[in-house]
Amino acid sequence: MKRILLVGAGHAHLVVLRALKRTPLYGARVSVVSPYPKQIYSGMLPGLIAGHYTLDEVQVDVAALAERAYADFVQGRVVALDPERRRARLDAGGELAYDYVSLNAGSLVDVSTPGSEQALPIKPFENFVRELRSPRRIALAGAGAAGAEMAMALRHAGAQVTLYSDKPTLPPALARRVVSALRRRGVDFRPGMAVSEIDPGPVVLTGSARQEFDRVILTTGARALPWLARAGLAADERGFVLVHRTLQSVSHPEILAAGDCATLRDAPHPKSGVYSVRHGEVLERNLRLLAQAQPLVEYQPQPRALLLLSCGGRYAIAQWGGWTAEGRWVWWWKNRIDRGWMRSFSR
Ligand SMILES: Cc1cc2nc3c(=O)[nH]c(=O)nc-3n(C[C@H](O)[C@H](O)[C@H](O)COP(=O)(O)OP(=O)(O)OC[C@H]3O[C@@H](n4cnc5c(N)ncnc54)[C@H](O)[C@@H]3O)c2cc1C
Q1: Are 121 and 251 in the same domain?
Q2: Tens-place pLDDT, residues 284-316
Q3: Residues paired with 100 in a beta bridge
Q4: Are residues 143 and 209 in the same domain?
């Protein structure tokens, strides 16, 4: 009996567990290790902050899902991976042995700005929600889709919000709609202003200018989990695990990786939950094939992904390739997709 270890309960592993609940995986013992038995879904996090959802509505009960998928749930955080001994070490001290391991542990935010320890990173979400409380004056560093969404959600909840952006990260047509939405909602958007340092206070420094806030939130780009970058696997220049289209590590075929923590060597694509879900569909098939010692199938990268970005109130912006749209109807569409995703794990 092969031992398959799923590290992290990211989107791809949720897809795997949902499939195992319907059709069990014979010939292998599956375990899932993740820090939170109930975890927050990123797509609904801005809606939680804006007050559209309760905490219960945005959490996936991973432990219950694992049980229904005939998998063992281990609550813990992996702090080291030893590919030679095929073991993962946990923060509590124990080790988990595996024959195959699948990594879907997401990413962290970039904390390279000096004084980042004065700020609250948006990831892990569970820590962010616990620590946020109700600050009045908030600064966000990083205006990608997540930073803009969070800025508008916090503004909707009544805070004064300043959003710093060092460089444009969104495609022009989408950026125009997002900037206009930020301005309409009264977010103090500062394009081209990089946060150079964060001092105690917290005080944000942008060049020679200083401004004090009650909270500084980091919504900066994705950074690899440090223990993964240290595991000795082939990695890209940022430390994300390089994988073939089968999602196998290019250096260690018994290790698979999906979602934000992986980079497809042949076809790198942006890091977002939508891609992780697609990885999950291939991962599920490949874990079954591995258990039967069969050749694996390949992920076919999709050229574009649907982006739905909520704007604080029940209003959202959509982007699909070069097409963009916005309105209350987009929010209802997003709400329907997000609620459907959540429901699919509880049935
Ligand atoms: C505010 C916000 C809104 C977003 N909205 C969207 C959206 O609408 N659509 C979209 O496509 N993307 C969205 N994203 C991006 C998206 O969150 C990430 O790209 C996505 O979550 C990555 O998914 P994943 O499957 O790689 O891992 P994640 O979903 O991040 O899950 C990682 C899992 O690994 C676990 N884990 C972490 N460390 C360890 C460890 N050491 N050991 C064991 N387990 C661990 C975590 O607890 C979690 O279970 C948003 C991001 C933010 C910040």
Answers
A1: no
A2: 999 999 999 999 999 998 888 899 999 999 999
A3: 4
A4: yes
